[in-house]
Design a protein that fits this description.
Blueprint: H1 5-20, E1 47-56, E2 61-66, E3 73-78, E4 94-102, E5 105-113, H2 127-135, E6 140-144, H3 148-153, E7 160-161, H4 164-174, E8 182-186
Parallel strand pairs: 6-7, 6-8
Antiparallel strand pairs: 1-2, 1-4, 2-3, 4-5
Length: 191
């Protein structure tokens, strides 16, 4: 008795299905979809971004804290007379430091303030524009977003104090109820 090649092929396929199943899915349990990861551009190796931990004019060095939480580390850089932007190396301020390697030392070449990016729909106004708004008695609420201690040292006329941490936690209760009124926020940064 001779078995036809088509029957052998059919028996082989049936045997394959019997052992592996007819689906390629290994589990019938639904799996969670992984969230899309935001692509972050790689940072140049000669730039540090973080908060200034200290600066010594006598030792001519700057300490910057890079990273957050358990991954935060303090990095020391030297500076010299050709370092630009030393006025932005203030303890507690966010900064971006470009450096070059000189031997085993990192030497700061340019220091810039690390400024927050404005959300969509938020506009930046210049000091003279705000002055004009004050002079024309514009219908606005001026909000000082600095820490309360800085507000107590001095603030713009009529400004109310809503420090950023409080604004993040209590946004609905601390902002004015009139959603049509212009809100002007300011802080202690160089903007």
């Amino acid at each position: 008795m001779r078995i036809h090649p088509k029957k052998i092929f059919l028996l082989g396929v049936l045997a394959l299905f019997a052992f592996t199943g007819c689906t390629t899915q290994k589990s019938q349990v639904p799996t969670a979809v992984k969230p899309a990861t935001e692509k972050v551009a790689p940072q140049p190796k000669d730039i540090l971004k973080g908060k200034i931990a200290g600066k010594s004019n006598k030792a001519k060095n700057i300490q910057i804290i890079v990273g957050k939480g358990d991954k935060a580390k303090t990095i020391m850089l030297k500076f010299n007379d050709s370092t630009k932007g030393l006025e932005f190396a203030k303890k507690g301020e966010a900064a971006i430091i470009k450096f070059k390697m000189v031997g085993n030392d990192k030497v700061a070449t340019v220091i810039k303030p690390k400024l927050a990016k404005l959300p969509e729909g938020v506009l930046e106004i210049k000091t003279n524009e705000l002055m004009g708004m004050y002079e024309s008695s514009a219908d606005m609420v001026v909000i000082d977003a600095r820490p309360a201690s800085r507000y107590a040292q001095g603030h713009l006329p009529g400004a109310i104090s809503i420090p950023v941490p409080k604004l993040k936690k209590e946004q609905e209760t601390v902002l004015p109820a009139n959603r049509e009124q212009l809100l002007v926020f300011y802080c202690g940064g160089p903007t």
